[in-house]
């Protein structure tokens, strides 16, 4: 009928570090404000603040409630502290947040679990390669031209981290257990050691975070979802 059902659209909102405004901090609840104060560097504080403000603004608009009243829960399954995956209480949308370098991403879906990951290219490679890649992936990466390797590593990394964020495992799951498609190929989870059947349920989508960054979106059980990337500049202005 020409209308895309909400369930079938995954939105990815992009903000830049320069989008932060003094009023954003006023949207945070007392627990979020406490976490904000723990950041020593202003830019880390700003990334956190933008992530929370964006989550509250986008979900509030979707639910028809003021941003301050969006019931966000972040209970860590390991220790109970409020630094785990964000969840909208009740029957709300599913969300995922990522920040790196100059970018903050918020992914929102109505249809199922979602994970987003953005990484800045200003990272060192070093032994990160061994922590992220399995032997075949490592060999593929090392076969790339020198100038392609950093972007290749970030493609592998964001593909894998978006998946473990969608499942909620985070980095408790060794990234070397996941096998994903090579950087030059369409993003795909090929296999996850010890988790048979999951590869068929996870869809990966390459995102466009802009210069100097690489990003990926993972959706679980949403094979027909359309991905829309949006600028958060107006929402945050
Ligand atoms: C989640 C995790 C993968 C983030 O990696 P990162 O590249 O450093 O950071 P990103 O910016 O991409 O993502 C951070 C966001 O992920 C979200 N997040 C936290 N835990 C998550 C989880 N288990 N699954 C999905 N998302 C999670 C939060 O929204 C967080 O943003 P916030 O700080 O604004 O709340 C990593 O920190 C992790 O695995 N944490 C959980 C494991 C852990 O530390 N357990 C011990 C705690 S007691």
Task: Kindly describe this structure.
It is built from 6 helices and 11 strands. With 237 residues, it is α+β, with helices and mostly antiparallel strands. The longest helix has 22 residues, at 42-63. The structure holds coenzyme A. Coenzyme A binds next to α2, β4 and α5. Coenzyme A binds at residues 48, 51, 74, 76, 78-79, 84-86, 96-100, 117, 161, 165, 168, 170-172.
Short description:
The strands form four sheets. Strands 4-5-1-11 form a four-stranded mixed β-sheet. A three-stranded antiparallel β-sheet has the order 6-10-9.
Annotation keywords:
about 240 residues; alpha+beta; binds coenzyme A; 3-stranded antiparallel beta sheet
Secondary structure topology:
Layout: E1 9-16, H1 30-38, H2 42-63, E2 72-73, E3 87-88, E4 94-100, E5 103-109, E6 114-120, H3 128-132, H4 135-142, H5 146-167, E7 178-180, E8 189-192, E9 202-206, E10 213-220, E11 226-231, H6 233-236
Parallel strand pairs: 1-11
Antiparallel strand pairs: 1-5, 2-3, 4-5, 6-10, 7-8, 9-10
The chain binds coenzyme A (COA).
Shape: globular
Low-confidence stretches: 1-5
* Proportion in β-strands: 15-25%
Q: How would a textbook summarize the main sheet?
A: 4 strands, mixed
Question: What structural category arises from helix and sheet content?
Answer: alpha+beta
Widest sheet, order of strands: 4-5-1-11
Question: How many beta-strand elements?
Answer: 11
Give helix % range.
25-40%
Q: Over all CA atoms, what is the radius of gyration?
A: 18 Å
Q: What is the ordering of alpha helices and beta strands?
A: EHHEEEEEHHHEEEEEH
Total helices: the number is: 6
Bound molecules: coenzyme A
N-to-C span: 34 Å
Mean of all residue-level pLDDT scores: 94
């Amino acid at each position: 009928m020409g209308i895309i059902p909400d369930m079938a659209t995954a939105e990815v909102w992009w903000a830049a570090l320069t989008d932060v405004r003094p009023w954003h901090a006023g949207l945070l609840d007392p627990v979020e404000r406490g976490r904000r104060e723990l950041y020593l560097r202003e830019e880390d504080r700003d990334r956190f603040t933008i992530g929370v403000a964006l989550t509250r603004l986008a979900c509030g608009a979707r639910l028809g409630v003021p941003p301050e009243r969006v019931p966000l829960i972040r209970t860590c399954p390991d220790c109970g502290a409020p630094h785990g995956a964000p969840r909208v209480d009740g029957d709300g949308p599913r969300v995922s947040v990522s920040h790196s370098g100059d970018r903050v991403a918020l992914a929102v879906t109505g249809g199922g679990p979602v994970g987003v990951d953005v990484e800045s290219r200003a990272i060192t490679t070093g032994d990160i390669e061994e922590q992220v890649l399995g032997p075949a992936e490592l060999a593929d990466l090392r076969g790339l031209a020198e100038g392609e390797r950093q972007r290749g590593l970030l493609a592998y990394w964001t593909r894998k981290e978006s998946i473990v964020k969608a499942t909620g495992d985070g980095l408790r799951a060794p990234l070397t257990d996941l096998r994903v498609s090579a950087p030059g190929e369409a993003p795909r989870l090929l296999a996850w050691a010890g988790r048979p059947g999951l590869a068929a349920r996870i869809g990966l989508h390459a995102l466009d975070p802009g210069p100097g960054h690489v990003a990926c979106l993972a959706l679980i059980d949403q094979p027909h979802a359309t991905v829309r990337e949006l600028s958060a500049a107006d929402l945050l202005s």
